[in-house]
Queue: 4 jobs
Job 1
Amino acid sequence: MSFVRACAVAEVPVGTAIPVDLGGDADIAVVNTVDGFFAIRDVCSHGEVPLSEGEIDGCTLECYMHGSRFDLRTGLPLELPAVVPVPVYPVRVDGDHVFIDPDSPIHIQEQ
């Protein structure tokens, strides 16, 4: 795994998400919940809009455009109209910094 610094912990208060640019092909959102930090591809699989602009509820992130909700732990869609999962990424917090491994997306397929 090759973790890279994504942002400072202070940049993402609990209950918020921010887009981060790690210089690769994938747009990634860092999300801070009461359960910790998560990283998810910052594009809704249904409407292709930034998930970082959505609403956080527990370990879910809701797309503001059409209301699809995604599990931040797995990337699986929990609410229509989205039916395709989005990748999530390993996250590590070290001191005041959040690190993501953008080279190891976790793709979970619904059974």
Job 2
Amino acid sequence: MSEFYPPVGFHFLVEFSGLEAEEADIRFQSVSGLTVNMDTEDVSEGGENRFKHKLPLRTNYPNLTLKRGVVVGSALINWCRDALENFIFEPKDLTIKLLNEQHEPLQTWNIVHAYPVKWAVDDFNAQESKLVLETLELNYHYFNTIN
């Protein structure tokens, strides 16, 4: 019987299609928001007072949040700034790859039609010794899983 080891969550990379990115633009500290929810509608049936039927409507995808140390001169941040400062939106597809020990993809998520909606830089504090992190929040249409 083969032993099952769940994959670790710290070995991953993020790739943006159509973006001339450097090595630093695929490395992130964290990725969150890879979630899908089903919206439902309550329907009451005449004469039935014990429950309401819940019918599925559509899927709902929250924003994707990417965090990393600040990268100066990043193509990814230039793309983000074009959207947020100049209102020039160029949606991109991106992939999130969970990697194994040999740096091969175990699981891949394809994010479709993403564009930035928020960019934030952590606070500066002279009393702390920590890295400056930037947070990029992306809206997208949907994602699918590629095995």
Job 3
Amino acid sequence: MEYISSDTNVWIDFSIIQKLNLPFKLPYTYIMNEDAISDELLSPPGLGERLKAYGLKAVEISDLEFDLAQSYGEKYLKLSIYDRIALSIAKNRNITLLTGDGSLRKACKKEGVPVIGTLGIIDQLLTLEMISNQEYKDCLQRLQQQNGGTIRLPSAEIDSRLEKCFKEE
């Protein structure tokens, strides 16, 4: 099973559209720093515990990952400490990072760390036939309806996927 280092915003996206279970259908083990789970996954209440029940694994960071996260603070000023920790875990363990954060995605690109976000997860679920076309479309429509608030995804990307869905009907 492939490991993926996790940031918080994708989980919030899936929580808002009430599809928190979906990413756990994929053949991945999502990991997240244990302090980030308790400090960042606060809303809605119980989100961190629900994610752990689905399979999110809390991990401690190594000394090397701590030092790497500290060095990223000087290099990537817009990243929070937990963003830097998620990046350092992905970089050190040579795994993908799950995030939708624009600044963190840019840092991943500079560090050579593969990245996937909310739309990439939904696309994989459809491609691997783990969700139906209708559920895929429903997820996209819910994301589109909530976009611009807590969810901040590229509207054009959602629209192009939805347009393709409607053409295939």
Job 4
Amino acid sequence: MSERFDAGVECCEESVVHSDLVSLVREKLPAENDMQDLAELFKIFGDTTRIRILFVLFEAEVCVCDLAETLGMTQSAISHQLKILKASGLVRARRKGKSVFYSLADAHVRTIMAQGWEHINEET
């Protein structure tokens, strides 16, 4: 029977380090600063308002006015979140006359959103 931690995670019954596996994995690990950058990117997805904005942009390129109306929020609140999304490279802006239209920055953002959605909706 395996030992269990308080969190209910199963552990090995005896402590044996598999050095060949540890060496192999250590060689493949990204640099610490790259992992930090990735963690920061995923933090951006940790806000429901930003996720809602990204889902709208997943469907269409829209202006701040359209986003505010669709999500039932103020333009100021939308603009604040768009600033964060744009600084993170997740959305881009395009000016057309007096309007600024926002869209997902690239196919990677679309893939992240689609994969995340698929993951939370898969049957376990």
